[in-house]
Specification:
alpha/beta; Rossmann fold; Helicase, Ruva Protein, domain 3; five-stranded parallel beta sheet
Length: 463
């Protein structure tokens, strides 16, 4: 059944724009330029309510909140100016989706098609999952530190939307895993997820890969080919390392995002496309904009819902957990026992800066399993660069920014906390109850602190 649509707009002209856009597509559309009247009607007579700022801004999040207060089950789509804080606030208040103004007809109709088939309505993702083996994490990503819990929460917020996502983080932090998690929990999960590595091809070939080409449009174009953008229709397009696009290609991508129409290389006809775009970069696009290496208008189009993946050196509490999980995985594959790491080895793993992030840790644990599988991995088994890692900062070094200071303080405090726990266990003969009593802590609190460091009695990593 075709859903009935209510459009609440800050001005009559903005409401009429969406009225014509949707009524021409066959929807039963009604408009209200008075937010108070719209709030009253939203949950009573309409299947979907669209709250938009248009040219006369209204407090769209406040209107959304009042609609949900009056009718908690109301389906509300917010169309805003692309402000990140507004988008996050809207999703937290229960919006079905957040779209950026001006919203194209193709994008809006693609969203409303979901309401014609109730089984495909988006569901808010439950991020309170555990990874394999009962370890804390989400969709195969292991982590329990605050920074990663925030990432898992953001995945849950953005997965049910169609808004563009920009993932930034150093190489090896797991950006592709986040992309796949977002797609698997989106309404587009039954449609293609297509990836394009923006570093792999020359600009001309990359444009052909993205936009497609017609036969004879350039040397070697022996047949007409559909581009990834067209093939990904109704699915998700993943642009890996988008910062490597040439300025010319950036301009063409911007036009597609604005019009939701694509034209093959050498063609004159345009085709309407309905895609959800997720872009990643291991460089700061904002800094590239300042350097004139990336278009500012495209950056703002991509940066609707940003997610920043922390480097492993800023989630030190997860290092023992990740190392233990990887060791179990590789030990099972190789059919050997899993005695674990010595306390000294775990301590050095935490001190190391991990320039290659989680990917580097995984590769090193695989190497250790091959070389020492079945034996407890001690300090002498670790690679030289890890054995010789030092505390990140000394008294002679001064952090240059407030963020650096907070990071260093956290690392030093965690290092002292771990030494405190291990010393207490040593004095008490590895008896947790005695150790807790000797330092003036309740046993439950002492045990929880041990687990937060991935330790158990005897100072070994928890398994």
């Amino acid at each position: 059944m075709t859903p009935r649509i209510l459009v609440i707009s800050g001005d009559r002209a903005g409401g009429l724009r969406y009225y014509h856009m949707l009524s021409d597509a066959g929807y039963d559309v009604h408009c209200s330029a008075d937010p108070a009247l719209g709030i009253q009607a939203a949950g009573e007579d309409f299947d979907v309510t669209i709250v938009c700022e248009s040219s006369a801004p209204i407090e769209v999040v406040e209107v959304l909140r009042q609609i949900k207060d009056a009718s908690p089950s109301a389906n509300v789509v917010v169309v805003g100016r692309g402000d990140v804080s507004q988008a996050v606030a809207a999703m937290k208040e229960g919006a079905v989706d957040y779209l950026e103004e001006p919203c194209s007809a193709a994008r809006l109709r693609g969203l409303l098609r979901c309401f014609e088939q109730p089984a495909t309505l988006p569901e808010r993702v439950d991020v309170g999952e555990v990874a394999p083996d009962g370890e804390p994490g989400f969709e195969g990503m292991i982590g329990q530190c605050p920074a990663m819990r925030e990432v898992f929460t953001l995945i849950g917020l953005v997965a049910s939307t169609d808004s563009t996502v920009l993932l930034t983080g150093e190489s090896g932090t797991g950006k592709e895993m986040v992309v796949r998690a977002i797609h698997r929990h989106s309404r587009r999960r039954d449609c293609p997820l297509l990836a394009c590595d923006c570093t792999a091809l020359a600009p001309t070939l990359l444009e052909s890969e993205l936009f497609g080409h017609v036969k004879g449009s350039f040397s070697g174009a022996i047949a007409t080919k559909m581009g990834l953008i067209e093939v990904a229709h109704q699915g998700t397009l993943f642009l890996d390392e988008v910062g490597n696009l040439s300025l010319e290609t950036q301009g063409k991508l911007l036009r597609i995002l604005e019009t939701r129409r694509v034209r093959k290389v050498g063609d004159t006809a345009e085709r309407e496309v309905d895609i959800r775009l997720i872009a990643t970069s291991n460089r700061s696009l904002a800094e590239m904009v300042k350097a004139g290496e990336f278009r500012a208008d495209l950056y703002y189009r991509l940066n609707v819902l940003p997610i920043v993946l922390p480097p492993l050196r800023e989630r030190i509490g997860d290092v023992p957990l990740l190392a233990s999980v990887f060791l179990r995985q590789f030990s099972r594959q190789m059919g050997v026992p899993t005695p674990g790491f010595s306390p000294e080895a775990v301590h050095q793993l935490e001190l190391y800066a991990w320039p290659g992030n989680v990917r580097e840790l995984r590769n090193i644990v695989e190497r250790l399993t091959v070389l020492y599988g079945g034996s407890r991995i001690g300090l002498s088994s670790l690679p030289w660069e890890i054995r010789n890692a030092k505390t990140p900062v000394s008294a002679a070094q001064t952090p240059s920014t407030w963020e650096d200071l907070k990071r260093v303080k956290g690392q030093i405090a965690r290092d002292l906390e771990r030494r405190f726990l291990m010393a207490a266990l040593d004095r008490s003969g590895q008896n947790i109850t005695k150790a807790a009593k000797s330092v003036g802590m309740q046993r439950s609190n002492f045990h929880a602190l041990l687990r937060s460091h991935g330790l158990r009695s005897e100072g070994r990593p928890a398994e």
